[in-house]
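[Automated response] Your request has been received and processed.

Submitted sequence:
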Amino acid sequence: MFARLFAEHGLSLDRLRALVEVGAAGSIVMAAGGDPAKQSLYSRQIKELEDFFRTTLTERQGKGLRLTPSGRELARIARFFLLGLATFQRGCLAEGQAFRIGASSTFIQLFLLPVLANAPAVRTRISYSLETAANDEVERRLHDLTLDFGVVTSSALSRPLQLAAVGEWRLRLWAPKALCASARRAAEAFQAKRLPLVLPTQEPLPFEHPALKDYEPRLTCPTFLEANAALQQQGAAALLPDFINPRTSARGLLKVSVPALDAEVFHYRLAWNPRLLRLNPHASRVRDWLLESLAERL
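Generated structure:
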């Protein structure tokens, strides 16, 4: 079955690992950490893979390079194979499992950290690495198997990725009383797009919604957490999810009703690549535990 694959030289685990590392880093220089000897080695190994498969695996992009479609596909196959070997090795050596989870900064701080840092979770032989990532990056990295799990707000991801809901939430508009004497006046100012507003740019806000389209915010920041911190200064209003209640940390705020936004329902969903579950039998148990624990937390 594999006679042709091994009939000539040029294919090896080291060469495949070089391709995977270069693809993940985005360039040979980055993958080699600036080491000239390692750069030369990676360049030669990728050239040998190109000669073996008789196809181009990398292409120039500015001063760096990127993987071609063939390079990305081979890197994905190689990563799947290498992850399987690494999982098998950990099992043979009775080592603990390690999983990487990508999510927004808000979700990590308010939900993932409390779940993963509690005593029962810490006592297990499973370790976790949390990485801030937006929906599109989570999707790409789940395909590449550089993330094991991700939390997204998307309702669908490209195949074969799978999703399961862990909780839902709504947006609420909060305005300082120093800006508006009443919630009604704050709502009128918001609808007229005159209310000074803080908007987070890395959160799932419906910017194309009529209520927000063409709205020029007074301040932008990355996440809901920063938006809440700005709101505490009482110089601008903010849209926050209903699981962040500024009443507990600040006075003089108005909860403003905006029916068009109040009705919008958002969801957090745990996402994974089913190929991971086939590679690592422990992943299914971790997935089920995350789904249950996060649903309880939300």
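Summary generated for your ticket: The chain has twelve helices and eleven strands. The chain has three domains: 13-88, 96-167+267-297, 169-262.
If you did not submit this request, please reply to this message.
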